[in-house]
C-alpha cells in the first residue's frame, strides 16, 4: 500500500527528530493514525533515528494481534521488513472501553521496556475511541501515565478538543486528516481480525497441561476456574508472572488437565493464564 504523505507531515518528522521523546497519535477511527505512524517510522529510520513502536490499538492492531498491546524496536530501515512484535501484553478484548485501566497499564509496560532499552523516540499508536467520557478517560489515562513529549492529533473538525483542552505542558500538533484516509466497513474490520488470528495460530498444536500448575487471572484479578469456568474457544494470554509470552486458545478442561492450542513450543516457566473476552 502506497502512503501519500500530507505536506504537514514533513515538518513533524523534523520536530520528532529534533525533540526526541515519546509521541502519542490520537484520532477517531479511520483518521489514518496507523498509516501516519508507519510513515514516521520509515522517515525517522531513513534519518538514522532509532524508533520503537507501541501499538496500543487492540481492535485493528497493525503490529500485533487484536486483543493485545505490542512493541517493536526498529534500529535500521531493514527492520521494517519484519513488522512483527518483540514484546506483547495481553488485554483480552477488542473493545478498549471495557478494559480502560488494563489498557493504560499495558501501554505503559511496553513503553517502559522501550525506554529501558534506551530508545529515545517512541511512537504510540492508539484505538479510535475518543468520543465521550470513555474516550476522554482512556486517552487522558494514557497521556497522564506516558507523559509524552508530543501529541499528534488527527481530526476532521473539533472532535478531539474535549481531550486536548485538558492538556497542559505537552506539545500538541493538530493535524488534518489525509484525503486518502479511507473508512472501513465493519465486515472489513472483522475479516482483518480473523486474518490476524489465522496467521498467528497457523501451525499451532494442541497442548495438554495440568491446570494446577497455573494461576488464572481475569480482568486483573485471580480467579478459580472451577467456580468461573473458561469459555471454550476463548483467547488466553500465556504468561510468565505478569509478562505475556504467547497467546493461546483454550479448548477445554478434563479432570486435572487443561487443553489449549498455541504456537508456543515450551511451557517452561509459564505459571499464569490470563483469560480474555475474545472468541476468535
Ligand atoms: N496518507 C494516506 N495515504 C494512503 N492511504 C491512506 C492514508 N491515510 C490513510 N490511508 C488508508 O485509509 C485507511 C485507514 O487508515 P488507518 O488504518 O491508518 O487509520 P486508523 O486511524 O489507524 O484506523 P483505526 O482507528 O481503525 O486504527 C487504510 O486503508 C489506509 O490505507
Ligand atoms: Mg489504526
What is the tally of helical segments? Answer: 6
- How big is the Rg? 19 Å
CATH superfamily of the largest domain: P-loop containing nucleotide triphosphate hydrolases
Number of domains: 2
CATH topology of the largest domain: Rossmann fold
**CATH architecture type of the largest domain:** 3-Layer(aba) Sandwich
Characterize the main sheet.
7 strands, mixed
**N→C terminal distance:** 26 Å
By CATH reckoning, the class of the largest domain would read Alpha Beta
Helical coverage, percent range: 25-40%
Q: Can you count the beta strands?
A: 14
What key phrases describe this protein's structure?
Rossmann fold, globular, 2 domains, seven-stranded mixed beta sheet, 28% strand, 280 residues, alpha/beta, Elongation Factor Tu (Ef-tu), domain 3, binds adenosine-5'-triphosphate
